[in-house]
Write a structure and sequence with these properties.
The protein contains 10 helices and 18 strands. It is α+β, with helices and mostly antiparallel strands. A hairpin with a 3-residue loop joins strand 15 and strand 16. The longest helix has 22 residues. It is globular and about 60 Å long. Bound molecules: adenosine-5'-diphosphate and magnesium ion (MG).
């Protein structure tokens, strides 16, 4: 379990030294300060940072944020028998299942992103995912992957909004929200924290960060994107964010290398194997559900189609290709600081 948790503590992070710096000096004229807590939730390190005039108010808001993330995880967790997602999956091909409004919302969000990415992001990738075990470093037999592929296809999810029901049309289908749930949960936690009167903060569920408001000194939040071939605290790029989200998906969290080829936990829904064009993909957008799922989708699409899609959607992002080049959307250039001495080159 600990290993699993360690594996998932990862790649986009709030630079810790900066947070330290903020706590020491960033008292505003109103006496606002930064408060932060980190807990293990959704099998990863989740941290909540709030700007608050009192410690008591900060603590209440942070607790409420964590409770909200736990509530969403209880609904969406693929591995808990009692979650809405398990219920939907165990009734695949049999009958529609009544679920909570939040589950309907995130499944509809997931379908929206599946359409936008032409199925590169697909929440029905479950039957492929369960074949891969990154601890045992064994490639599943081709025949098993071939058998799983017809069960992957977001178009076979039926959502009945008026009755809050979800039906998977084929027996054996499995919804897996692993690539959208953390961003969605961060959005929900921010809603709850804001409703408690907090004007600024950050919810960071490992690689998925949702920020709002400004630091007590009136400046933007400072976010670091990890060097995908460096250590956990090695930032490759930094950027500034107020209201919005950023997510990164990469090939360096759950992976193994066999015969010189790297296999990771993001799968191309068309092939059942991990794509090889990309090392990491970062997306910036107003909402966490969008950055989380799009980052995964972009990883599958690769740098050419990925950057083109972001520019079409009017969003910003960065892709590091396996050619070791950094690709940025046009509008991100000038807004992101890339560290000079790294092993990646500007790809345009
Ligand atoms: P992480 O969960 O490591 O933050 P992602 O957000 O990219 O990274 O999600 C990866 C997880 O999403 C995988 O562990 C798997 O459960 C699921 N997944 C893998 N490939 C896809 C895909 N093409 N579309 C949707 N979900 C995927
Ligand atoms: Mg994702």
């Amino acid at each position: 379990m600990l290993n699993k948790i360690r594996r998932s503590i990862r790649f986009v992070f709030i630079i810790p030294t900066l947070i330290f710096f903020l706590t020491a000096t960033s008292c505003s004229r109103q006496g606002d300060k930064i408060y932060k807590d980190t807990r293990i939730l959704m099998a990863t390190a989740v941290s909540i940072t709030v700007v608050s005039p009192t410690e008591q108010k900060a603590k209440e808001a942070i607790d409420a944020g964590f409770n909200e993330i736990k509530r969403i995880d209880d609904l969406l967790n693929l591995f808990s028998d009692k979650s809405d997602i398990s219920l939907i999956n165990s009734n695949a091909g049999l009958r529609p299942v009544k679920v909570s409004k939040d589950t309907i919302e995130v499944i509809e969000d997931a379908i929206e992103i599946s359409r936008l990415t032409g199925g590169a992001f697909d929440p029905t990738v479950g039957p492929v995912k369960v074949l891969w075990n990154f601890d045992s470093k064994v490639i599943p037999p081709g025949a098993e992957i071939k058998k799983a592929l017809p069960l992957v296809g977001y178009k076979n999810i039926e959502v009945k909004k008026d009755s809050n029901e979800v039906f998977l049309k084929k027996k054996g289908m499995m919804i897996d929200l692993g690539a959208i749930a953390k961003g969605f949960a961060a959005d929900k936690a921010v809603q709850v924290i804001k409703a408690m009167g907090i004007k600024a903060g950050i919810v960071a569920a490992s690689g998925d960060i949702r920020a709002f408001g400004l630091r007590p000194d009136g400046k933007l939040w400072h976010i670091g994107i990890r060097n995908p071939r460096g250590g956990r605290k090695d930032a490759l790029a930094t950027l500034y964010l107020s209201n919005g989200a950023i997510s990164t998906s990469g090939d360096y969290e759950q992976f193994f290398i066999l015969n010189g080829r790297r296999y990771c936990h993001i799968f191309d829904p068309k092939t059942g194997y991990s794509p090889t064009d990309t090392i990491s993909a970062s997306v910036i957008a107003p909402d966490g559900y969008k950055t989380d799922s799009l980052a995964t989708g972009l990883f599958v699409l690769g740098h050419k189609k990925g950057i083109r899609l972001l520019e079409k959607l009017g969003l910003d992002g960065m892709i590091i290709g396996s050619d070791h080049k950094i690709y940025l959307t046009k509008t991100l250039r000038g807004k992101i600081e890339i560290k000079g001495d790294n092993q990646f080159n500007n790809g345009g």
